[in-house]
Amino acid sequence: MNKKIKTVAAIAQATVITIHIINKICYSVSTVKNILNSTENNYYEWRFGKIRYTKKGSGTPLLLVHDLSVGSSGYEFHKIIDKLSKQYEVYTIDMLGYGLSDKPNMTYTSFLYVQLLTDFVKTVIGKKTDIIATGDSSSIAVMTCHNNPEVFNRILLINPQSLYQLNLIPTKQTKTLKLLIDIPILGTFIYNIVTSKHAFINMFRKYYFANPNNIDESYIVAYKEASHRNDYNSKYSFSSHIGRYMNFNILHALKEINHSIFIIAGENKKETQSIVENYIYYNNSIETAYISETKQYPHIEMPQKVLNQISIFLN
Asked: pLDDT digits over 87-112, tens only?
C-alpha cells in the first residue's frame, strides 16, 4: 500500500511540475513580441496599483475605455486613436487587471471600476471629459456618470452589454468557477487553454468580427499578450468577469442621468437590436447608429464608419 501511495504521489508531483513548465512556456510565447509596449505609455499611481494610460492630441478631452473581455486593453482603439487625436485630447486607459496595468490578486467589481474612472478623470485629466466605452465597460461609464455627474460630458457606448446579462448575479456555480481559475497551477493551466491562440481566433470569428477575412494576425497577438502580461495575474480579472462579479443593475442610473448618450452597435451582432431597444426603453433620449458588416468591435473592423458616427455625435 505504501508503495502505491508513493507511486501516486510521484506521478502527481511529476504532473504538477509538467503543468508548471507548460504554463511558463505559454507565458514566454505569449509575451515575446511586446506589441503593447510603447513610448507613449504613462502610469497613474492609483490606490490599488499602477494604471497604464496614453495621452495624445489636444482639444476637448476624450477618454476611451476598453471592453472587459479577456485580453482586452487600450490596444482595442489603435485603429481610431490617431484620427481622433487630431481634434481631441485623447486618453486610453488599461483598466486595473487588464493590459499593462497592475493585476493584483483580488475580486474585481464594477464598483471598483467606477471609482477608478472617477479618480482617473479628476486626477489625470483634470476636467469634465467625453467618454467612449465598449462592451461591459459601458455599464461602468453609465454608473460613473450617475454617481458623479461632473465627471463626464457626453457618453458614447459601443455594443453595450445587454441589461438582462448585467442583472445576473454570482451563483454557486460561477463562484466555484472563479475559485478554480484562481488556483495557482491548475487554474493557470485552465486559463492558458481559454487564452490560447486558437481560442482567440475563435472569439474573433464567432463574436468580435463579422468577416473573418478582416482578422489580422496582430490582433490575435495583442489580445494574447494582454492576457498574459504581468505573469498570469490577468486571470484574476478574468475569473471575476466569468464569476459575474463585474455585473450590476444600471436601470435606475440609465433612467436618471441627463447626459447625452449615443449607442453604436454592430449590425451583425446577435440580438443587437433588442439590446439597443431595451436601453432606449429606459432612456428614450438615447441616439443610435448601426454599423453594417460588423459585430462586437466595429471600431477595429470598420474604423472609418465608426469615426464618422463619433464625429456626428461629438460635433
From this structure: 999 999 999 999 999 999 999 999 99
State the pTM of this model: 0.91
Helices (H) and strands (E) in the chain, counts: 14, 8
Whose cell is 481631441? That residue is 88
The amino acid sitting at 298 is P
* Mean pLDDT rounded to a whole number for the chain: 91
Q: Coil, helix or strand for 103? A: coil
- The DSSP secondary structure of 170-228, one letter per residue, reads P-HHHHHHHHHHHSTTHHHHHHHHHTSHHHHHHHIIIII-S-GGG--HHHHHHHHHHTT
Determine how many CB atoms are found less than 10 A away from the CB of residue 267.
Answer: 15
Phi, psi of 297 (to 5 degrees): -120, 70
CA distance 279 to 180: 34
User: 228 and 26 in contact (C-beta within 8 Å)?
Assistant: yes
